[in-house]
Design goal:
Blueprint (H helix, E strand, L loop, with lengths): L11 H11 L5 H25 L4 H7 L3 H9 L2 H4 L2 H14 L7 H20 L4 H10 L4 H20 L2 E3 L2 E3 L5 H11 L9 H9 L11 H12 L7 H10 L1 H17 L5 H11 L1 H4 L3 H21 L4 H4 L5 H8 L11 H16 L8 H11 L2 H12 L6 H11 L5 H22 L6 H8 L10 H17 L7 H8 L3 H21 L4 H16 L6
Antiparallel strand pairs: 1-2
Length: about 550
């Protein structure tokens, strides 16, 4: 017995003896003793769970043969089970004993036994056990057969209720009240690793009601994400994407979990790296723009760490990019004095232009490969517009090209040249306005200019010029007083409103990362963000 408890909490044997003494808590003395010791016993159960969750069921039974006795005695003690916290921790522990792919009859019997205990926990305080037993017997079922069936039917019923029902060709939606959905997610927290509950977990993750506030408990997302990362639950990609979109901490933990696996895996094993990436589902989920932005940002920092610490060859990470271009991009803008950033930007522009436009030295991945490499290295793409706007000199063609390429990488040489001409004209107007002591919204709108003949600009060019105007409003002191008026005119559609929100949000994030000192500009950006987000959707 002593050997069996090796690796378990030191007071394991103490609680085993206590459970034997407590029995069914049939006397007042034992009930009082349980109440006195219950907080310590629940903490003991939490320690048990922390140990069990790191193992598969076969290892648990092999190392701790009496763990089933301890959990069973606890489950059948009504005084312990009467507390919600006890029920929750017990279901967590029992979930660790379930083997998703039993290899022999022993493992199948263990699964059946464990499900019986779980069914008992779920049903013991909803119905009178004796009444359920009599009802099951009258139907010809033994309790051991009845409880798993009851559990399965209950889950299927809830899943059906969460989903849209189609009857006789009519779409009749039976939607749960938000408070009931929220309560259901809380009940499921300790049960997410049980195979029988996977359909319900998936239905909750993909369920979207009409309430603008998140309905599900954050702890539910945490529990599902942990189970997914430890491979204790199987979920389709659509459910995992919903999880990460609805709960940002889960996405961040999933990305960090992948980082840990990559750092401690065998070096230079591209096959293992590819397998880890694929199993994480992050590349597939990154098809969604919101997930892509967050994961990409985290990977940028991770790459810098890998390149600086592990000393892999650059060719391993960027097989198609010229090494000189990668080395230039690896410099961080914040490490270069503000007045000297135009020099590396010009070098980067020349190398990219050669890669994109010179077919004899073209990149294997084409223009998009070069563009992705450039924007992937954080601050450089964002620094171009500010450099062009704040510089008092004539805008260099290299930076104009880089800005046009950033916003429209698929353009050919002629469309890009036209964009450069338009941007140069707008920049000239804006730089003159920078020196003006007073400004009006009309002045700034005129600076943006209209195309000859009333022709509309290409989408990418229009977006580029809007972002130049936003940069001007943030950096020009005279622009602060007219900022809201200009943005109200600019963001008249929902699409341009969300574009402006995204620009301001990314700008604040970049300033935080670069340590940019601009108190007035920061304050203005936050105020504009608050105003835009508060506007009703119909006003956008």
């Amino acid at each position: 017995m002593a050997q069996d408890s090796v690796g378990l909490p030191s007071d394991y044997q103490f609680w085993m003896r206590k459970l034997s003494v407590w029995g069914q808590a049939s006397t007042l003395e034992t009930q009082q003793d349980i109440c006195h010791h219950l907080p310590q016993f629940q903490e003991f159960l939490r320690q048990i769970y922390e140990i069990l969750k790191e193992m598969d069921s076969s290892t648990i039974i092999e190392r701790f043969s009496t763990i089933g006795q301890l959990l069973a005695k606890t489950c059948w003690n009504p005084f312990i089970l009467a507390y919600d916290e006890s029920q929750k921790i017990l279901t967590w522990c029992l979930g660790c004993l379930i083997n998703k792919e039993p290899q022999n009859s022993g493992e199948s019997k263990l699964n059946s036994w464990t499900r019986g205990l779980l069914s008992h926990i779920l049903s013991a305080f909803r119905f009178d056990i004796k009444e359920v037993g009599l009802f099951a017997q009258s139907l010809g079922y033994a309790p051991a057969d009845y409880y798993p069936g009851l559990l399965k039917n209950m889950v299927l019923s809830l899943v059906s209720e969460l989903r849209e029902n189609h009857l006789n060709g009519f779409n009749t939606q039976r939607r749960m009240a938000p408070e009931r959905v929220r309560s259901l997610s809380r009940i499921c927290i300790p049960l997410v690793t049980l195979p029988d509950f996977e359909p319900l977990v998936e239905a909750l993750l993909t369920y979207h009601g009409h309430d603008p506030q998140e309905m599900l408990w954050p702890e539910f997302f945490d529990a599902v994400n942990e189970a997914f990362l430890l491979k204790k639950i199987s979920l389709p990609k659509s459910a995992v994407v919903c999880l990460w979109l609805r709960h940002l901490p889960s996405l961040e933990k999933a990305t960090l979990h992948l980082f840990e696996k990559l750092i401690f895996s065998e070096r230079n094993s591209l096959r293992r790296t590819e397998r880890f990436m694929k199993e994480s589902l992050l590349p597939q989920a990154a098809c969604h723009p919101a997930i892509f932005r967050i994961v990409d940002e985290m990977f940028r920092g991770f790459e810098f760490f890998i390149l600086l610490q592990l000393k892999f060859a650059l060719k391993t990470y960027f097989p198609y990019a010229p090494p000189s271009l990668v080395m230039s991009l690896l410099q961080h803008p914040k490490d270069i004095p503000q007045g000297l950033q135009h020099q590396p930007l010009r070098r980067i522009s020349e190398m990219l232009r050669e890669s994109v436009e010179d077919q004899t030295h073209g990149s294997c991945g084409g223009p998009f490969e070069s563009w992705f490499l450039f924007v992937h290295f954080g601050g450089w793409a964002d620094a171009v517009a500010e450099q062009l706007l704040m510089s008092g000199a004539e805008p260099p063609e290299a930076l104009l090209w880089l800005l046009a390429f950033t916003y429209s990488p698929r353009d050919g040489s002629q469309p890009r040249a036209k964009t450069m001409v338009e941007v140069k004209a707008v920049l000239g107007h804006l730089r003159r306005l920078l020196r003006s002591p007073t400004l009006s919204a009309r002045d700034l709108q005129a600076a943006a200019g209209e195309r000859p003949g009333g022709a509309t600009r290409p989408l990418a060019c229009g977006r580029l010029i809007r972002h130049l105007l936003l940069n001007f409003l943030l950096w020009a002191p005279a622009g602060h007083t007219i900022a809201w008026e200009v943005i109200s005119h600019m963001a008249q559609t929902e699409e341009t409103a969300w574009e402006t929100i995204g620009f301001l949000d990314q700008t604040l994030d970049r300033w935080d990362r670069l340590g940019t000192e601009a108190p007035a500009s920061r304050r203005l950006a936050r105020e504009l963000l608050t105003e835009l987000r508060a506007r009703p959707a119909q006003a956008r």
